[in-house]
Design goal:
Blueprint lengths: L5 H21 L1 H49 L8 H11 L5 E8 L4 E5 L9 E4 L7 E8 L3 E5 L6 E2 L6 H9 L3 E2 L3 E2 L6 E10 L5 E10 L1 H9 L7 E6 L4 E4 L6 E4 L2 E4 L8 H6 L6 E7 L2 E11 L5 E9 H5 L10 H33 L4 H5 L9 H47 L9 H17 L4 E8 L2 H8 L1 H17 L7 E6 L2 E7 L3 H17 L10 E8 L7 H17 L5 E2 L1
Parallel strand pairs: 21-22
Antiparallel strand pairs: 1-2, 1-10, 2-3, 3-4, 4-5, 4-6, 7-9, 8-9, 9-10, 11-12, 11-17, 13-14, 15-16, 16-17, 18-20, 18-21, 19-20
């Protein structure tokens, strides 16, 4: 960017301001009245927009509040999901205060599903829907019973197979692994749009328990926009960021179904030309729109819902509404403008000289690339307090700069050393299982791929063993997870004692599963070590004088084999599965 002298920078604004002042005086009547008129129009729009904004926020807020409440309850009390019948009562009570709420539901990982349900059109009564009452994965409708929660079956409701784990609300929540909005969609069999919010449920250990969700009918928003009393020729719409309509003030269809295919109506394809042209400008703020010679004041505001969802409110009012208050302007005098221009220009020149001279000296000293040039500046440099303060500050900075530069290199070196140590520690922790101090799955992947590559490069044999503790769940159930952790550490110690630390690999693959990798070792030697491991367990009880056993799946790759790490683990897993199914405490090769 081209630089300009300070004096011109001071003088020019004076001249520009003088011209602006003259023009302002000349057009004072027009501009003042026009601003008042525009303000009236904008105030009208913002008043209407504020009501719509509050209505939409209040309308949509129950979805996220209810999902948050249920997610918190199920995550901290997973036992609630063991019996979904009382949950039906919980959902019914949550839905009752909200006339717009169509579904509040939960689906478990084993396919059970329960929800409070309400007709999105003929609202006023909430019922219960469940797929586990009489037959698994069979959806039925029930009356609400305040005592038993799930009351008599509603004979008029259809009975059909229903697995929630195949439904979009479940799949989307699992895929995104967070609170997720569904796409706005027409309710099947009902002339209204709807939207849902779902979230995956995990217990405190990170185990997936299911998905909880809410769904709401948007028909009331469309009816609300239609009910607003607007100035003649005004339009209001509620749309998604891509222009897909949610509601409009003039009614009309919001989706079309042709030959079984349903599509949403978009602003750019709306039969109303005003709304069509509005689709070309969806940026938030105030805009001007001209439709066949008719001007509109057009305002767009974003509605930020919870969890990343954003909608747009668009309001268009004819400019004739607020421009009707414009009056004829009066002329201002050119002589006043000229005199103002000359006086202001002269004053600006004097101020520029008075301010610019000491600043010019500061500039020369600062650009001299020599600290002494700044230290030798006169004091006081100017009668202007701020310039003197700046000069003193520069001198102080010059005095401190040398000391700072001397210490900087030392501090950088010290900090670099600390960061390197922290990085090494983080790397080690990311590859090591905290409980057993063995490689974790990430560490196993890294060292296994390296070892496998070296073995194939040097034509060495490699044997991979996938093993796990038999009936480990019984140890946790009977003696507690602390005992289970002791069993895992004992197994890890036994495995390490029967492997070569420098050559073999021992890793905790996950849960009670472990992986052993033997490089350039015969299968007979591997079998001897595995039997030694088993014998150690037989001779040494692990927890509460109890002996444990392990099952082993063994895969051996010859020196010329081109097998991958993934294939080795998959084959070993099959062998382990065979050992488990054939009675456990076995080695399957």
């Amino acid at each position: 960017m081209k630089s300009v002298p300070l004096r011109w920078l001071i003088v020019t604004p004076f001249i520009v301001l003088t011209l602006i002042s003259g023009i302002t005086l000349y057009f004072v009547s027009t501009i003042t009245i026009s601003n008042i008129a525009n303000t009236v129009g904008i105030q009208y729009i913002k008043e209407v927009e504020g009501r719509i904004y509050d209505r939409v926020q209040n309308f949509m807020e129950p979805l996220s509040n209810i999902v948050d409440t249920n997610l918190h309850a199920f995550s901290h009390r997973p036992a609630l999901l063991d019996d979904l019948t009382p949950i039906a009562g919980r959902f019914y009570e949550q839905a009752t205060p909200y006339n717009q709420m169509t579904f509040i539901s939960t689906a478990t990982v084993d396919g059970r599903y329960v929800s409070s349900a309400q007709d999105p059109i003929n609202r006023g009564k909430h019922n219960i829907a469940a797929n586990f009452v009489h037959q698994p994965l069979t959806m039925e409708g029930f009356e609400y019973d305040p005592v038993n929660f799930i009351g008599p079956k509603i004979l008029s409701d259809a009975t059909f197979s229903y697995d929630p784990r195949t439904r979009p609300f479940y799949l989307d929540a699992i895929k995104e692994n967070k609170m997720t909005w569904s796409a706005i969609h027409p309710y099947y069999g009902y002339p209204t749009l709807g939207i849902g919010l779902s979230a995956p449920i995990y217990d405190q250990k990170g185990t997936l328990l299911g998905v909880t969700a809410t769904s709401i009918a948007l028909r009331e928003l469309d009816k609300y926009l239609e009910s607003l009393e607007l100035v003649e020729g005004a339009y209001i719409f509620l749309a998604e960021e891509n222009g897909a309509l949610i509601a409009t003030s003039e009614g009309g269809e919001l989706y079309r179904t042709t030959e079984g295919l349903t599509t949403r109506v978009n602003l750019n394809s709306h039969p109303n030309k005003v709304l069509q042209l509005a689709s070309g400008q969806l940026a938030t703020g105030t805009h001007q729109l001209n439709v066949d010679g008719q001007e509109y004041l057009y305002f767009v505001r974003a509605i930020s819902l919870n969890y990343g969802k954003k909608w747009l409110i668009g309001i268009l009012i004819p400019s004739a509404y607020h421009k009707s208050i414009l009056a004829e302007y009066t002329q201002s005098t050119i002589l006043i403008t000229l005199a103002l221009f000359l006086c202001t220009g002269l004053m600006g020149s004097l101020i520029a000289w008075y301010i610019g001279k000491p600043i010019h000296r500061l500039n020369e000293a600062a650009n001299n690339k020599n600290i002494t040039s700044i230290q030798q500046l006169p004091h006081p440099l100017s009668n202007i307090r701020e310039i003197n303060s700046l000069s003193q500050g520069l001198r102080s900075m010059a005095d401190n700069l040398f000391d700072i530069m001397q210490n900087l290199e030392k501090k950088v070196a010290e900090r670099t050393s600390v960061l390197q140590g922290e990085n090494d520690s983080l790397l080690e922790n990311s590859l090591t299982d905290e409980l057993t101090q063995l490689y974790n799955r990430r560490g196993l992947k890294q060292v296994l791929e390296q070892s496998l590559g070296k073995a194939q490069q040097h034509h060495q044999k490699i044997t991979l063993v996938l093993c796990d503790i038999d009936h480990f769940k019984q140890i946790n159930d009977e003696y507690g997870h602390t005992a289970g952790d002791l069993a895992l550490t004992a197994v890890a110690a036994n495995l390490k004692n029967h492997t070569r630390l420098a050559e073999d690999i021992v890793a905790r693959y996950g849960g009670e599963e472990f992986v052993l990798v033997f490089i350039n070792t015969e299968v007979t030697q591997v079998m001897q070590r595995l039997n030694s491991i088993r014998d150690h367990f037989k001779s040494n009880p692990v927890v509460h004088h109890q002996h444990i056993t392990m099952s082993f799946g063994v895969v051996h790759a010859n020196a010329d084999s081109a097998i991958s790490a993934k294939e080795l683990i998959e084959q070993a897993d099959k062998k382990l599965y065979e050992a488990k199914n054939s009675g456990r405490d076995k080695i399957v090769v």
